[in-house]
Design goal:
The chain has 539 residues and is α+β, with helices and mostly antiparallel strands. The chain has four domains: 83 residues, Beta Barrel (OB fold (Dihydrolipoamide Acetyltransferase, E2P)); 117 residues, OB fold (Dihydrolipoamide Acetyltransferase, E2P) (Beta Barrel); 75 residues, Dihydrolipoamide Transferase; 218 residues, 2-Layer Sandwich (Chloramphenicol Acetyltransferase), CATH 3.30.559. The protein contains nine helices and 29 strands. The strands form eight sheets. Strands 19, 22, 25, 26, 27, 28 and 29 form a seven-stranded mixed β-sheet that branches. β17, α2 and β18 form a beta-alpha-beta unit. The longest helix has 16 residues. The chain is globular, with a radius of gyration of 30 Å. The termini are far apart.
């Protein structure tokens, strides 16, 4: 039996992250890749998996603690470490020493090698994430927790650490590949020391560090020994720059070629400060205007705003940048059409307010959103041309037999769209409770990738913010989105006189490749009718 301490791996540069959940207790027997703790940074929450199996003998953190890379999480008792030598070993050939004689020196432990396949661990439900960097090469000697690959999903990038030390025998992935939990990354020849029996021999000679050979065909010479570089500064294949994973991640996010950055660290290592200084120099001098932007559109020229007054360079959050990229992509690829209407929600609001006390007894707050969700679900069932997506082959439509609706939520980090599933099968109270819970989860930064996948349709409500209308952008691969503005009392002609009615502005944007104007008119007319008389939901 032996003991192993498990530490916080590389968190992509994040420090002092909160421990929000302890997943194990003293006495638990766990397997490799079982979650030990859940930590949360400003951007996301993530599980820290165990690299090995064993029995938990100590938990060294508590919920609410702040931890960084290298902090000890738990201590495990593992089997197969420190076991006595097998039968027929050299120990049997050595004569037994008398009890009065001091034990003979212990010979150097023989190395026990085993091939270990390293798979993609739990990555929060994300699937088909892209491999954006291979941090090791065949022949490299790596230590436990060294970064082996860097993955990037729609919401974040993450380093995958080695669960054990050893020599890289083969690599199963390449940059640009898409992987999911359980996919093989590489194979290690992991070496552990087995305890040898006492023998009266001289200590075994110490082996010199093995040389790390460059892969076949690699023209770039690699370091000869693993000790020449810090574990987190291993060169990427084909790279000529020394930099840690967090520095490389920051460079990718800022769109900077590390080869252009002047290094100040030892052995020519590029630090984050070097990177930031490089960007600052670029921002303080006039850059030439680009000829064109995406899709052949002329780009907006770079401007040195510091010429006109004091400025501050504020880094966009990952979510903000992804939202900007997605909106640009959707606007350029989807031929948008927007239709407008006003729904008379006078009776709906009277019913909702009349149910307020009963809803509170049931423990929910009944806002207009559950009614909008239920009405949109009915409209998607009524006008099925809206519940589709365009197939990537350009020749088919994917018709959906489920109704999942996303609700846009503004958070401190940017706009996110959590998805409520099977809206057509849920009641108002259930929808009220789920929509409030998802909105809170979004604002707290606790949404997982699976919480934002699988939507058929999106609702973007400005609610009490104001405005009489806007043009929402379709959230592809969905083909339509409903914009909701602030309701107001307006005079409506009833045939003999004007009556005060509460009118809700609706803005329906749709993809004209999948939906024609007549279908959109039917959808919006039906939706307005259902909102005007919720009893129609029973028909």
């Amino acid at each position: 039996m032996g003991k192993q301490t498990i530490k916080v791996p590389d968190l992509g540069g994040a420090e002092n992250v909160d421990v929000i959940e302890i997943c194990v207790a003293v006495g638990d027997v766990i397997e490799a890749d079982d979650a030990l703790v859940v930590v949360e940074s400003e951007k996301s929450s993530m599980d820290i998996p165990s690299p090995i199996g064993g029995k938990v003998v100590a938990v060294t953190v508590n919920e609410g603690d702040k931890v960084s890379e290298g902090a000890v999480i738990v201590e495990l008792e593992t089997e197969g470490v420190g076991d006595s030598a097998p039968e027929n070993s050299a120990a049997e050939a050595a004569p037994a020493a008398p009890e009065s004689v001091a034990p003979a020196p212990v010979a150097a432990a023989p190395a026990v090698s085993a091939e270990v396949t390293v798979n993609v661990p739990d990555i929060g439900g994300a699937e088909g994430v892209e491999v954006i960097e291979i941090s090791v090469a065949v022949g490299d000697v790596i230590a436990e927790d060294d970064s082996i690959v860097v993955l990037e999903s729609d919401k974040s990038s993450m380093d995958i650490p080695a669960p054990a030390s050893g020599t890289v025998l083969s690599i199963s992935v390449s940059e640009g590949d898409k992987v999911s939990q359980g996919d093989a990354i590489l194979v290690l020849s992991s070496t552990q020391a087995a305890t040898a029996a006492p023998v009266p021999a001289a200590p075994a000679p110490v082996a010199t560090p093995a040389k790390t050979m460059a892969p076949a065909g690699d023209e770039q010479a690699r370091p000869q020994t693993s000790s020449e570089l810090h574990p987190q500064e291993i060169l990427s294949p084909g790279s000529e720059v020394y930099a840690g994973p967090s520095t490389r991640k920051l460079a990718r996010e800022m769109g900077v070629d590390l080869k252009q950055v002047q290094a100040s660290g030892s052995r020519g290592r590029v630090s984050k400060d070097d990177l930031k200084g490089h960007v600052k120099k670029i921002m303080t001098r006039q850059a030439p205007a680009a000829v064109t932007g995406g899709a052949g559109i002329p780009a907006i020229p770079a401007v040195d705003f510091s010429k006109f007054g004091e400025v501050e360079l504020v880094k966009m959050s990952k979510i903000h940048k992804l939202t900007a990229a997605n909106m640009s992509r959707n606007w350029l690829n989807v031929p948008h059409v927007t239709q407008f209407d006003n729904a008379d929600i006078t009776e709906m609001e009277a019913f909702r307010k009349g149910m307020k006390a009963e809803a509170e007894k049931a423990g929910v707050k009944l806002t207009p959103m559950p009614f909008l969700l239920k009405a949109c679900a009915a409209a998607l069932r009524y006008e099925r041309s809206f519940n589709v997506s365009l197939h990537s082959d350009g020749e088919h439509l994917v018709k959906k037999n489920y109704v999942n609706i996303g609700v846009a939520v503004a958070t401190p980090n940017g706009l996110v769209v959590p998805v409520i599933r099977d809206v057509d099968k849920k009641g108002l109270y259930e929808l009220a409770e789920e929509s409030v819970a998802l909105a809170k989860k979004a604002r707290d930064g606790k949404l997982m990738p699976r919480d934002m996948q699988g939507g058929c349709f999106t609702i973007s409500s400005l609610g009490a913010i104001g405005g009489t209308g806007f043009t929402p952008i379709v959230n592809a691969p969905e083909v339509a989105i409903l914009g909701v503005s602030k309701a107001s009392i307006q005079p409506v002609w009833d045939g003999s006189a004007f009556q005060p009615r509460q009118m809700l502005p609706l803005c329906l944007s749709y993809d004209h490749r999948a939906i024609n104007g007549a279908d959109a008119g039917n959808f919006l007319t039906y939706l307005s009718a259902v909102l005007g008389d919720v009893r129609k939901l029973l028909v």
